Amino acid sequence: MENVPKPLDRRVKNFYLMAEEYGEVDAKEISPSFYSLKKTTQRYESYELLASGGMKQIYKVYGTRTKRQLAMALLHDDAPEDLFDPFIHEAWLTARLDHPNIITIHDIGINEQDRPYFTMDLKQGDSLREVIERLHSNDRKTKEHYPQETLLQIFMKVCDAVAYAHSNQVLHLDLKPSNIQVGDYGQVLVCDWGLGRVVGQDDPGEIDRQLLNPDLFGSSNLIGELKGTPGYMAPEQFVEDGALDVRTDVYGLGGILYSLLTLLRPMSGDDEEILKRMKEEEAIVPPQQRTPEREVPASLNAVVMKALAVDPKNRYASVSALRAEVHCYLTGFATQAEEAGVVTQLHLFYRRNRRFCLTLFCAALIIIVGTALSFWEVSEKERAATVARQEAERTLALYEAGRSALETMTSRNAESVVALATRYEIEGRVDGARAVLKTALEQEPENPIYLRAMGIHYFVEQRFGQAVTFLESSGDDDVIYSLSQEYATFKVDDAILGVNQVIDLLSRLPSRATMQLKLIMNDQNRRANLTERAKIVKAYLQNINPDWVDGWFEFDAAESALRVGGSGLRRLATQQSVLDGLRLRSLDVSGSEVEDLWRESGYVLESLDIHDTPMKQPWFLRRFIHLKTLAISPGQFTPEQLQVLPDQVKIIERD
Predict the structure, then answer these.
(1) Please, which residues have CB within 8 angstroms of residue 597's CB and are 6 or more apart in sequence?
(2) DSSP 312
(3) Does this model's pTM top 0.85?
(4) Sign of CA dihedral 613, 619, 624, 628
(5) 109: which strand partners?
(6) Measuring CA to CA, which residue among 567, 604, 612 is closest to residue 587?
(7) DSSP three-state, residue 63
(8) Which end of the chain is more exposed for a tag (fewer CB within 10 A), N or C?
(9) What CATH number was assigned to the domain covering residues 44-120?
(10) Domain 375-489 sits in CATH 1.25.40.10
């Protein structure tokens, strides 16, 4: 039987026909993308300026070959050729780091104008500094999006990036919130490696990079003022030939963690003041003391202070060790820095194993309740003894404090003791003042000066019954004694006066500004309502400004804002400012006769209006480190005078 060939499949036949016609088809129609890429000569187009810094500009560009949006870094048009190498070295150093939390360099080259450039990921989102500023201003949306746990997760990603860089012998040396980029979906990028250094290698461009980097110096002649962020830079970075290692970056990370917990820079004041204090062990106030209202955990407080130690030997030996501490806090374990005791360890164990502990507790409770009932009377006696012991310990502590204060006085007489107690009262240290006077009276129980001072102290505390007792013993019979007798008839010592009663009391002490100040400072320690505090402050200002008749005093507790002014208002404070109790963020004294605000310069003011006032010397304005907006009259200050203000302050001129 002959072999009959099978008929050819139609699809195969069509394939051969297409192959025969292939030579007649233009190659551009077969591979259009290839030929489009081949004829592309302009690699980047659609330049859009995003930001401009001291040394370089950042543009948003479109990559014609990659078909994606990128960021391109270029030197300023007038930048000297001396900056070319430091610029290229920054790009090379960043390019050698391949990590998801470090910005990626895509291309380095020379453009048609014969100037270097490099392209990188187009950053999305905001800098960590912008996030912190919005949190500081109580932006509701930002607070919802960035709770403390989220901020700590961001910090751990930053630690991951820096630890990776250290594993490649690279130091960042300029870690601060403005160099951290965060996105809306968990993206975190460590940027700006311009001050970076390769450890253990001789880098010929290192000197150029440090001398010419505008993040350090304000001009290329190298005689300018230091312009970095000293609060985030380790002390050894400002010492000639200072030894820099991974602990230098640990300090910068400690500064970032400090800002995440407090929403403030690690040190207040201008850069010159910070540089002078950087080597002091107590230059940085612990977060818990700086912002008690934020309730910073003790464990993280200890971690921050260890990372910010002046001596590098006292810091964490590596970024991984710092990250591990934060991870311990987030997972419910004690940190090494806090040196937690047994109670703290047990508390953390309970938080980690709450369900198990509750089950165990319920089982134990059933057993314990029956036994506890039989020991109720004994427990009550023990409780009473404990309370008595605690009160005795507190009394002893106050006595020791008073005795210590008296012993440190170089020359002691009754007047100096009373002056010390008065200073404590004005500063709000009521217990300290009482301790000093009690100690003095134990040594001289019949001294009329001490007896009168103790009577006045209880008068200031609104404990008029006790005030009467001491004032009678002193033999004085003046307006303080009369007022104490009057108020003792209707006020219980442990209660607090009403607002109108305090105002009445102030009005009956017209020539006693110090007494009025002590009354207000003590009242503010006990009175929580800010609106009530404001009414008392207004009455006090009227007392110390008798010619202030037709002025205005408008306080908004919700906005933390005060507008006060008018003819005759010449001062807002005597020995101590009472405005601190209003927790102001905005102050408007326009139209007043106030000449300076140096006693108010420690406030966290963000907005200040001093136009149409006799203020001519702005030196005290430098101390308002959180100030964002300043309103002045045209010509009120010279441009040279205004140069003392921080860069973030916006000047507004009002007629």
Answers:
(1) 572, 587, 589, 608, 610, 615, 620
(2) G
(3) no
(4) positive
(5) 117
(6) 604
(7) strand
(8) N
(9) 3.30.200.20
(10) yes
- Nearest partner of 211 among 114, 118, 109, 85, judged by Cα: 85
Q: Which residues contact 575 (CB under 8 A, 6 or more apart)?
A: 426, 514, 517
Neighbours of 521 (CB within 10 A): 21
User: pLDDT tens digits for 230-256?
Assistant: 778 888 887 766 788 999 999 999 999
Mean pLDDT of the chain: 81
Give the C-alpha separation, 234 to 262, whole Å.
19
User: How far, in whole angstroms, is CA 369 from its chain's centroid?
Assistant: 48
- The 8-class DSSP code of residue 339 comes to T
C-alpha distances in angstroms, 295 versus 218, 262, 578? 38, 9, 25
CA proximity to 152, closest of 283, 39, 253, 7: 253
| Per-residue tokens: 142 | 């930002």
DSSP states of 11-58 as a string? HHHHHHHHHHHGGGS-HHHH-HHHHHHHT----EEEEEEEEE-SSEEE
**Which tokens go with 160?**
């991951």
* Structure confidence at residue 45 (pLDDT): 86
- In angstroms, rounded to a whole number, what is the distance separating the alpha carbons of residues 289 and 258? 12
Nearest to 103 by CA among 56, 70, 74, 64: 70
Rounded (10°) angle between helices 513-526 and 530-544: 180
Domain map of the chain by residue range?
8-39, 44-120, 126-340, 375-489
- Nearest alpha-carbon partner for 614 in 600, 587, 631, 593: 593
Lowest-pLDDT range of 38-52, 74-88, 518-532, 628-642: 38-52
**CA distance readout (Å), 171 to 25, 119, 197, 574, 617:** 58, 22, 5, 51, 43
Residues 6+ positions from 154 with CB-CB distance below 8 Å: 128, 180, 182, 188, 260
* Helices and strands of the chain, counted as H and E runs: 25, 16
CB 450 within 8 A of CB 418: yes
Q: Which residue has the tokens 């800098």?
A: 127
Cα 528 → chain centroid: 24
Q: 3-class SS at 456?
A: helix
